[in-house]
Amino acid sequence: MKFSNLYAVAGLAAAAFVAPASAQTITGAGASFPAPVYVKWAEVYNKETGVQINYQSSGSGNGIKAIKGNTVIFGATDAPLSGEDLEASGLVQFPTVIGGVVPIINVEGIKPGELSLDGDTLAKIFLGEIKQWDDAAIAALNPDVKLPSTAIAVVRRADSSGTTFAFTSYLTRVSADWKDRLGVGTTVQWPVGLGAPGNDGVANNVAKIGGSIGYVEYIYAKKNNLSYTRLKNKAGKVVRPETASFQAAAANADWKSAPGFGVILVDEDGDASWPITAATFVLVHKAPKDKAQTAAALKFFDWAYSNGAPYAEELAYIPLPESLTNEIRAVWAAEVKTN
């Protein structure tokens, strides 16, 4: 079954299960990066409590817009808001899980994890400067791989995307040219490529287009059986995207160093670290209009912190450490007025 069929863009949680008509429904919207785990948590939580979580996977930019506009109870973003933005908007921000953004490819004869890239080469591909799969820069990183003389077709996000924020944050760290020309953003002025909405849109287009490359949260590659690349990390080691390499990148995160726990986990130190690791975040109002609904949303995420780790790990996400979730609960108690 195609992964996008499991996680439709709109009303995806509602499609995952049917709650009784009298059940409480909590609405959320935003990042597609965590959508698979939010859907799974929502399904299990509904069975246990009868509460329905209706989450729309519409992209981080839409999630921020929706919570600021009070059209949902919680918004979701992979691009953390600044302290100034949180304060001006009256929002509280907190992380939920950690995952990895991975380059995915559709190149004939190349198996998952067989091709290696480094940051500079990846940047040049997405800048449109490297145009063929047998380019000398790619060949130098893969002396034992038979590379076809096939044109590279770039697939990137068309919407405002936290996954794009993580991807461009990494490219900005490792490529001076990328930093000077495009920089970091949920959207950038892409010089090349086909735009697609959501992680599932990128995954589906890469699956269909020969010679293509894109970037998605790891579970979208895994569930669609797409080939992914290895990457050379900050320590100069070539690593695979997997739970252990995501954990290694997150191991030394200083969550208190940024407002709203908004830590950027790209290009981290460590031999085993995956270089495009990212947390994903939820936004709620400090003084919500619907206190009961916001309290119910926080109760759901509290349940997820206590009970959701096995479901997250099944989907190749990294649960947050207990020390961090306890800090998050303390922030809820101090800053979110639900009574």
UniProtKB/TrEMBL annotation:
For this protein, the record's Gene3D superfamilies field holds: Periplasmic binding protein-like II
Q: Name one GO molecular function term.
A: phosphate ion binding
- What does UniProt give as the signal peptide span? 1-23
* Keywords associated with the record: Phosphate transport, Signal, Transport
Q: Which positions, given as ranges, span the membrane?
A: none
- Domain PBP, which positions? 21-307
Report one GO cellular component: ATP-binding cassette (ABC) transporter complex
- The superkingdom listed in its UniProt entry is Bacteria
Recorded hits in Pfam families, A to Z, give:
PBP_like_2
What InterPro entries does its record include? ABC_phos-bd_PstS, PBP_domain, Phosphate-bind_PstS
* Assigned protein family: Belongs to the PstS family.
Describe its function. Part of the ABC transporter complex PstSACB involved in phosphate import.
Query: Subunit notes for this chain?
Result: The complex is composed of two ATP-binding proteins (PstB), two transmembrane proteins (PstC and PstA) and a solute-binding protein (PstS).
UniProt-recorded name of the protein: Phosphate-binding protein PstS
> Organism, per UniProt?
Pseudochelatococcus contaminans
Task: Provide the organism lineage as a comma list.
Answer: Bacteria, Pseudomonadati, Pseudomonadota, Alphaproteobacteria, Hyphomicrobiales
